[in-house]
Write a structure and sequence with these properties.
The complex is a heterodimer of chains A (152) and B (434).
Chain A: E1 5-10, H1 20-32, E2 37-41, H2 45-51, E3 57-64, E4 73-77, H3 96-105, E5 112-119, H4 131-134, H5 137-151
Helix pairs in contact in A: 1-5, 2-3
Chain B: E1 9-13, E2 20-21, E3 24-30, E4 33-40, H1 46-52, H2 60-64, H3 72-86, H4 93-124, H5 129-135, H6 137-158, E5 167-168, E6 171-172, H7 178-203, E7 215-220, E8 231-234, E9 239-240, H8 245-248, E10 249-252, E11 261-264, E12 270-271, H9 274-281, H10 287-295, H11 308-329, E13 345-353, E14 356-364, E15 370-376, H12 378-395, H13 402-415, E16 419-420, E17 429-432
Helix pairs in contact in B: 3-4, 4-5, 4-6, 4-11, 5-6, 6-7, 7-11, 10-11, 12-13
The chains are: A alpha/beta (152), B alpha+beta (434).
Chain lengths: 152, 434
């Protein structure tokens, strides 16, 4: 029996703002409660396919770069194409866009997939989000809570 | 943009695809000769070494597991070995077995990821895993099934699949019951079948003629294939314990590169990883793995890095086989961990990560505070060998245009499965032909 919604935080909290995905996912879990599962992920594509297997709605939260001011929130919902360049700041061979493409090729996408990107600022080794990015956590939680509620 | 006729050129490959993490390759060609090959794929985990200073001696398994999402178990086990050896503690036999079983899970996971998603597309002519998955869905799904069983094994023992939380100095926080381990055995049997299929599949690939002529080094321990312990031996007679590493291996500058190169003192580069393990420990493989290797045309004399994909598949067979043997003999230990009283001094430890030997050194105060830490991962040690290999590869293929040369060079790099996920985020490749 799988949960109907999963929030997957992607990133690496040891690379400062690359930890935004985990921070937002955890905060969504606290806000929404047991109606959603929260998964922390390093973004490795095959684990993403497992994390969203069989759910109605999967929300993936990741840090992005190159699309605006630190803390800016982007949303890609349903069939909108993920730009591969903005997929992730994560240090992985295959990014989030690749995971989605792989899921599509293998017919292993969730019924609804929403990607929320938060513009990162600092991705050097270290703990803690930069202030602009930390300030976006609550806004991102609001966005996700609304999206999940409207799609369940 | 290509300049195949130019006797002077430089090229850079940006975003080395399908390498764990990102890196950069820079090649300088002058008067039709390769002058320089720089590979910036690896930065030592200096941040973590600094972070460890001042922490308690019990913390390295948790902290160093964060260095790599692909091989956290390797970091944890090398850390445990180093600190337990300094504190003069012997871990109970069932706990040693459990550690090895967890490590087998990591090998299965890491090797199947590399074979199916990163390396096989090179041999089958696809740009990457996604194109391959579109054309060969069942094959890629087989790889994912195999990998998942490795994940499950790590998760069962380690508490979770990435950055396992259940490992501690002296053992584990809690250990699985016999029933829990027995329950995963059928999945591991299935993995072994998939692994044997994988060996047969990759053995049929077309391999370019190519040879790594240098020194191969791997751990070796009597009676077992090297995973969790051993002495470091090599094809040129190296035979040392972890406390001797810094007396025999140095990092220095070489002419064609700006990166520090690890070298055996008085000799030169050495190469770690599956090819080396296999060459030096063929006799320690399980009979099934040895037979699979033989049927795939491998012998301990194999020196072609392109064939390392076949060796990885053989090592998955071994990991499944050995994992099943451990499950069979497992009896829940009386205690999940032994007490490890701190001791002042310097401790050294190493294990065989999927990519080769990973070495840790810790200096402790008498209350167990870490005064200093040094971590030498396999990819940083292999960087010199990879550059050396690339140098000759580029030299022999100067007739190719930049983009084709870059593409083939990336394949050479992927043979080594370099892990750079703890290094820099963004990669650029440049070729300078002037």
């Amino acid at each position: 029996m799988t949960s109907r919604a999963v929030i997957i935080g992607v990133g690496n909290p040891w690379r400062r703002d690359d930890g935004i995905g985990w921070a937002v996912a955890e905060a969504v879990g606290q806000r929404v409660g047991p109606a959603v599962d929260v998964v922390e992920s390093d973004g490795e594509p095959t684990r993403l396919l497992d994390a969203w297997a069989g759910v109605d709605v999967a929300v993936v939260v990741d840090a992005v770069r190159g699309g605006g001011a630190p803390g800016k929130i982007h949303v890609w919902a349903d069939d909108s194409e993920l730009p591969s360049t903005s997929a992730s700041t994560g240090s992985h061979a295959l990014g989030l866009a690749d995971a989605v493409a792989l899921g599509r090729a293998l017919d292993r996408l969730p019924k609804r997939l929403i990607v929320v990107g938060v513009e990162a600022h600092e991705t050097t080794p270290g703990r803690g989000l930069s202030s602009a990015v930390a300030g976006a956590v609550e806004d991102a939680v609001d966005v996700i809570a609304r999206l999940v509620a409207s799609r369940l | 943009m290509t300049h195949r006729a130019d006797p002077d050129r430089t090229f850079t490959v940006s975003g080395l695809a399908r390498v764990e993490g990102e890196g950069a390759m820079h090649v300088v060609i002058r008067d039709g000769q390769v002058r320089e090959v720089q590979l910036r794929i690896y930065e030592p985990p200096r941040f973590f070494e600094a972070l460890l200073r001042g922490r308690a001696y019990t913390e390295p398994p948790d902290i160093t597991a964060r260095i790599c999402g692909i091989c956290p178990v390797a970091y944890q086990m090398s850390a445990c070995n180093a600190i337990e050896s300094l504190c003069d503690v012997t871990v109970d036999a069932p706990v040693v077995d459990l550690r090895r079983l967890m490590y087998c899970g990591e090998w299965i996971e890491s090797h199947s990821l590399h074979i199916y998603l990163l390396h096989a597309p090179d041999f089958l002519g696809y740009d990457g895993a996604i194109e391959m998955a579109t054309a060969h869905r069942d094959l890629v799904q087989r790889g994912l099934d195999l990998k998942k069983i490795g994940n499950q094994l790590v998760e069962l023992i380690g508490g979770r699949a990435i950055h396992p939380v259940n490992v501690r100095i002296g053992g584990f926080y809690r250990v699985p019951t016999e029933a829990q381990l027995r329950a995963i055995a059928p999945r591991l049997e299935r993995a072994r079948e998939l692994a044997l299929d994988t060996v047969r599949w990759v053995a049929g690939f077309d391999f370019p003629d190519h040879e790594w002529p240098g020194e191969l080094a791997a751990l070796r321990h009597p009676g077992e294939y090297p995973i969790t312990r051993g002495r470091l031996v090599s094809t040129l007679g190296l035979d040392i314990g972890p406390e001797e590493l810094e007396h025999h291996i140095v990092e220095d500058h070489v002419e064609h590169s700006t990166a520090l190169h690890a070298r055996v003192l008085g000799r030169g580069e050495y190469f770690l990883g599956p090819l080396a393990r296999f060459a030096l420990n063929f006799d320690e493989l399980t009979p099934l793995a040895r037979d699979a290797a033989g049927a795939a045309g491998l012998t301990p004399a194999e020196r072609n890095p392109f064939r390392s994909i076949v060796i990885r598949a053989v090592e998955i067979v071994h990991a499944c086989d050995e994992g099943l043997a451990i499950i069979e003999r497992y009896r829940e230990p009386e205690r999940p961990a032994v007490e490890v009283p701190p001791r002042a001094g310097v401790g050294f430890g190493w294990t065989e990560a999927p990519r080769g030997m990973l070495w840790h050194r810790y200096q402790l105060d008498d209350d167990g505070t870490i005064l200093g830490a040094r971590i030498v991962p396999p990819t940083s040690q292999n960087q010199a060998s990879i550059e050396h290999d690339l140098f000759h590869f580029v030299e022999g293929n100067l007739h190719l245009a930049d983009d084709e040369l870059g593409r083939r060079a990336e394949q050479v790099i992927r043979n080594y499965d370099p892990c750079i996920s703890c290094a820099t985020h963004f990669l650029d490749l440049t070729v300078d032909r002037a």
